[in-house]
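Technical note accompanying the year-one report. For the benefit of new consortium partners, we illustrate the data format agreed upon in the data management plan: each record pairs a sequence with a structure-token string. No post-processing was applied to the example shown here.
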Amino acid sequence: MRVLFAAAECEPFIKTGGLADVVGALPKALVSQGIDTRVLLPAYGNLNLDWSSFKTIATFDDIFGGAVTLRSGQADGLSLILLDAPHLFARTGNPYVREDGTDWPDNALRFAGLSWIAAHIAANGVDGWAPDILHVHDWHTGLAPVYLNTMKANAASVMTIHNIAYQGLFPGIMRTTLGLPKTGFADGHYNHYGQVSFLKAGITGAGRVTTVSPAYADELKGPNFGMGLDDVVIARGSDMVGILNGIDITAWDPATDTALVAPYSAAKTSTRVKNKTALLNEVGLPRGKDKPLLCVISRMTPQKGLDVLLDALPGLIERDVRLAVLGSGDRDLEEAYTRAATAHPKHISVRIGYDAALARRIHAGADAIVVPSRFEPCGLTQLCGLRYGTIPLVARTGGLADTIIDANPAALAANCATGFQFHPTTVPALLSTVDRMLGLYADKKAWRRLVVRAMRHPVSWDESASAYASLYDQAIQDRQANTA
């Protein structure tokens, strides 16, 4: 089987969030299923990739205002097809927004171009290779199934929703410029209250639709989480499923991680304390009496519930708990956390930005990672926490609910707990769960058992890769039945 991934991000080449991690890891996991996967990715101006050795495999004179060249090559264990379109993507910085935080004004054309190229490859092949499946990710490639359905193509399509909050909405008048069929706008397939919705186009146009956890798939069917598209999701019925994300356990392995002061494993967690001591020194928090060190590694947005955690800081300080924060995003949140760290240097440390090596050292040195999201399609940071024995303390929503087993008395007695859940996402619920965590942390033997269970909990892509392989088979069968 041959699968073309089309996405706006891919770790380690360009990343703003979890989408990149999935697109960088899942194709590698699919190899075990006998699937030949290639990843179509825009050639951004700041792409972390030396593609001087990539070969030209196709050229186009005019794709939404300029010439386009497709180049193929290998990097970081992936087969890549780069969309070299200088007029659309030869820009540095964030793929979606300018330095002032506003969207690039031609985003509709940029990602329509990515979508059209994806559909063209799926329909016609390139360099002697043609996919059986076009797998598109989030709104940036949502138009690809629409374009594909207008072409004479044998390839089936799959759409994955990583976060339904981002829908790719543009003025309806752009329908003609984007080359979309008039009928699709008239019948509502990509018309969202008079606007062109790239995400809705993908949801309605793809043969099968997935999202990144079973709980999130259910949540999207209701108005609280569906973000205005719950009826569209419901209409897909059994054609939409939730398949849980995983992480690359080779890349995320505390036993071999060179960023750590002292590598360790589930069989020998005692050296973990060396990482905690080193981390406290690195982030400027005091050592001394044994109190748990909590951490946050996150985008700073209301979705992530970091405003709730901010309001909970007085309660954490009262409990003499320390907190190390690494993240960036909403400027008000950045400034508020920075002020809190300045006011309480013995309890709070904040680093604004993202540092991959520091993130790993935080995972290895902190006792628990707090993920207080209001909604979370899947979440990857809690999976990394499990892998590194950083006990997740999470809101009970979406993929967080699917991946963490709460350390309630029954789960502890059954020896299956892996972390702590709280609900609702409020300060009292969060602090109450911190109190539960502190009670268990005081029992060193019980805490060590929890750490070991967390580290041994399965977080790889193996099971999910098998689920995707089965889904691809179903999508191909559906496509063949519909074209027979």
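Partners are asked to follow this layout when depositing records. The chain has two domains: 2-246+462-483, 272-456.
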